[in-house]
Amino acid sequence: MASNKASLAIGTSARQQIQPLRQLLLLTAFSGECDPPQRLSQAPWSISDDALTAVLPSRSDFAAAWILMQAEPQGLQLSDWVDLVSSRRDGLAIASCWRWCLGPQTLFRLRQNLVEARPLTDLRRLRRERRLRVLQEQAEMRWQQQLLDRQPLDLQLLSAEQRQQLELLVDWAGGECTTPLPLPLRQALQAAKVTADTGSIRHLLVDLGQWQAHNLPSLRATVWEQGFSADLLAEAERLLVSAETELPGDAERLDLSGQRSVTIDDADTCDIDDGLALETTPAGQVKIWIHVADPGRLIALDSPLDLEARRRGSSLYLASGILPMFPEALATGPMSLRAGHRSAAWSIWVELDDDGAVKASGLQRSWVKPTYRLSYGDADDLIDLAPPQERDLADLHGLLLRRRQWRVRQGALLLDQPEGRIRAQGDAAQGDAPQLEITEPSPARLMVAEAMILAGAVVAGLGQEQALALPYRSQLTATLPPEAELAALPAGPVRHCAIKRCLSRGHTGTEPSPHFSLGLPAYVQVTSPIRRYADLVAQRQLLALQQGSQPMVATDLAALLSDLDGPLKQGMQISREDQRHWQQVWFAAHGSQHWQACFLRWLRPQDRLGLVHVDALAMDLAAECPAGSDPGDLLQLRVQAVDPLRDQLRLQATG
Known InterPro entries for this protein (predicted)? Predict the structure, then answer.
């Protein structure tokens, strides 16, 4: 043994260890003529777990000693204290009592070689703390068991700490992972065999009844989730009443309520922004009329509902339906161009020349009373059959087809193709399956789209003539692949894909600029003021021009458009996340099927990730593709893995 260290044989196994002397406490010295034994279990110690337990005094003996020692505030030496509680001083008794004293007991405190009886106040405090600790451990065990059972929770039975942990798990499920999970929660998750990642936590919360299977994290804490406040709904009710009274400017509107006009939209659309009519004047001139709803009649600038619409930027289109920019009672009521109802509108009339160019046009506020409300299917039938008493739609279709061909000669790109979209039908929470809805570019859809583009071109031309700041939409000129290269690609999605990847994003600014893919020198979106706030802004600019008041200057309009950019991007992100989720739900229900696909292009060739088009679904989808695939190659597509709660969809395309 060195002067300041000792070589020890630890425990009954005699594990060798070197320890500083200052860390050692002598309980009892070996007294004997022979050398000390190498193990505690050997004579004369004969110390083992059973032997130590056998000589340990009873609880009542320790309690009696505690009472007696209340008169000994200075404490007793360890050997004296052992003698008090057990009436013996041998090494086995000392070792047994020493081990007990260092255990979870609360009666005594051992300092160096001195045993002190704890004061009654300390005893009560320690016992209270131990009780609380036991209760906490029991609560944690129940919490871990609840997570392991994965059954719906009764929040009232949870402690405040557990509710906080649950709220933190909900944050993590929503993608807010900045706050780390505390150790007890991580241990509880580990016991429940749940990894600390967003997807696993979502699965757990769905089982616990704390997360909706079709919940959109990007909707959390947005204006869309909050809905319209009670004050805004009350304001909407007030406007519903005032809509039936005469308002400023109503007397100056052109009364077109006797004109035969129609609105054409999807069968389930209730907020109708636009309508069409055809007029032949006594002089034989043919005018196309495009009527656009005028919500500005009811919504004053900077009013509460106007500011709320500005916060939203546009209506939000989800698989389950529309979240409107204005309260539904207004959007589908007096703002909407309803068949048989006299409605306020902005009316654009256009005369085309024989080539399809605009020969003359005009714009004015009006009263309209749509004669019919048609679905696209109904309108397709009328265009196709062209009955003598209902020839207007067929004639309109012919005129707007001429206009479309004029735009093509100006360089417009026609990239129309069927589009597939997943719709959440019925009550998804009750297991109603989502449905695939394919929108075909039918004659009626192309006609309405061309009419809206024509209206935007006319308004942009007016703004250009009057040097009026408007939210002009533009697109930079693109360099497309050579004609020979495009001609070598299959017509339709493959060729469209090659063209689309060359196009730049559209831009909104206050100065007119060409729009490449539309083939127009200037363009303004102006036909959806119930659904797009920028369209309402354009109407207000036009009203100021007509009334001779001061329109918003370009710098102020640019600032407003900049403010709208954030809500519009957020809405687009929510809409994309929603459609991606429902695609995953749909593919999960059709995971055993196979579809024929056509390779479009590589996304990440190093990962063999490509873009394919599936005609049966009318969708472009990312999939793992065979190496060396070329545009136009036919492949077989199948689901490799899908988990909507993990935002996971892996598709595999094989040759």
Answer: NA-bd_OB-fold (IPR012340), RNase_II/R (IPR001900), RNase_II/R_CS (IPR022966), RNR_Ribonuclease (IPR050180)
